[in-house]
């Protein structure tokens, strides 16, 4: 809407624009109505309709009702003193002129009021929408913090407990028991390291508007490095990969996308409760590249499908969950993919769960480096 | 293992220092530790270690500064121990003359492997004539590349890239270093041409380019080729 842009200008410019716009409206009305009157039909009805149309247009796009009234005045003057005498052979009385002017002014004021009212409502709606998203962001942050503290407390308790047990009962513990205790500490700290990696990647995203700095990276290389890291951490795991033969470069933050791939792969490996190999498939579509991680296990419980990426899914299962779950991993994946303007979805297929994320090919100028 | 190999650890965190010392001693190395940059520089000059492990975040002098001061007079292999920060820090350290880097947190096994690689590189006097790893073989004299005994056709640039990586196998080569070595000092910062060539090489020598056996990517840094088994 023209008026919306008008409001963002300085006041004197608003008035200059309104004046010019009203004047051009009246000029257009005069030219078009004269043309219509002469060429098409000698019907005064057309003339007054055209004048009314331009009056509404002028009042819509000017500040205050002054310019509408000015338009009415000018058009009345032209209509009755110049145009009518010359062509229509009518002799309007002063009363006629007064009535016409009053009607036109009334239209001008009404239209102007309506427009400004509409604008105010638009602003109100935008404001309440913004507040809603702010509240949502706040909720997301709170959920994330809750999930993080939960996820940190569990392994830390394990480490503290195990090391205390070791220090206090050193004399009466057998070799095998000692080994178990230290192995537990080792596993818990590995898990904490994983967590720290995830949290560190989050610092690469500026949280105000989820902006990231992207660079063209080779898809194959990012996939290869992610796989290599997963293999290094879990040498026994089996992953089938399939990448397009074409050389693909995509704008992305490679470290972040690598983290997403690692999280999804580890999720598939350990949440599926199955040892069947996991599929990692990359497909080249028209405007995006599609990455799919598919496992052949128990799938995602139906009641959790909707809140997979909230970061609270696993936290709700509670400390009883021996495998510690993905923690905030999936929530972080969602944030990263959203920041890349892609989509992340988790669904069930016939034999297990499937996570798919897409990355757009074109660089979005707003978030470019 | 040679018991005389001496390793200097320059690291301010006592707990990390003690666990590295324990691991090194356990593996038959002699370990000396320094907790500040100044102490490290002095020790490096007095004991002439075979390998230096350097932490970038030191209390007195910046790790990169220590690195460039060390490089003024010695060519001892230096392995950077860095907390995971930005890739740029690692690239800077590697371009300043570090031989390798290892990111905290790391396991002792990984650290030992890196130390062995560095030692091999520093002791090598004559360049190898043949690179061999798995079923890949590169003959530097004949300028030929074989996979499973079959000759692979590489373009001039591809061969130069592969042989550069093979000659420095086990070490990370930064994008900048590779670009300068292959395309000359006036090449611009855009390394797309390097990526495309590497992709072509991978498709020619790897069975599955998404799970490479020979050339590994270090995201944001460069490439690393699998250790030469012929060494």
Distinctive features:
heterodimer, A: about 375 residues, alpha+beta, Heat Shock Protein 90, 2 domains, five-stranded mixed sheet, two-stranded antiparallel ribbon, about 10% strand, elongated, B: about 230 residues, alpha/beta, Rossmann fold, Arc Repressor Mutant, subunit A, five-stranded parallel sheet, four-stranded antiparallel sheet, 8 helices, about 40% helix, about 20% strand
Could you explain how this protein is built, in words?
The complex is a heterodimer of chains A (369) and B (231). Chain A has helices at residues 2-7, 11-40, 44-60, 66-88, 94-168, 175-202, 219-233, 254-271, 313-317, 329-339, and strands at residues 215-218, 239-242, 249-252, 278-284, 288-294, 344-349, 352-360. Chain A is α+β, with helices and mostly antiparallel strands. Chain A folds into two domains: 2-131, no CATH class; 212-369, Histidine kinase-like ATPase, C-terminal domain (Heat Shock Protein 90). A five-stranded mixed beta sheet of chain A has the order 2-4-5-7-6. In chain A, a hairpin with a 2-residue loop joins β6 and β7. In chain A, α3 (44-60) runs parallel beside α5 (94-168), α4 runs antiparallel to α5 (94-168) and α5 runs antiparallel to α6. The longest helix of chain A is centred in the middle third of the chain and has 75 residues, at 94-168. Chain A is elongated. Chain B folds into two domains: 6-123, Response regulator (Rossmann fold), CATH 3.40.50; 130-225, Winged helix-like DNA-binding domain superfamily/Winged helix DNA-binding domain (Arc Repressor Mutant, subunit A), CATH 1.10.10.10. Helix content of chain B is 41%, strand content 22%. Chain B contains eight helices and twelve strands. Chain B has helices spanning 14-26, 37-47, 63-73, 87-95, 108-123, 156-167, 175-183, 192-205, and strands at 6-10, 30-34, 51-55, 78-83, 100-104, 130-133, 136-139, 144-147, 150-151, 172-174, 215-218, 222-225. In chain B, the strands form three sheets. A five-stranded parallel beta sheet of chain B has the order 2-1-3-4-5, with helices on both faces. In chain B, strands 6-7-8-9 form a four-stranded antiparallel beta sheet, covered by helices on one side. In chain B, a hairpin with a 3-residue loop joins β11 (215-218) and β12. Chain B is globular. The two termini of chain B are 16 Å apart. The mean pLDDT of chain B is 86. Chains A and B meet through α6, β1, α7, β2 and α8 of A and α8 and β11 of B.
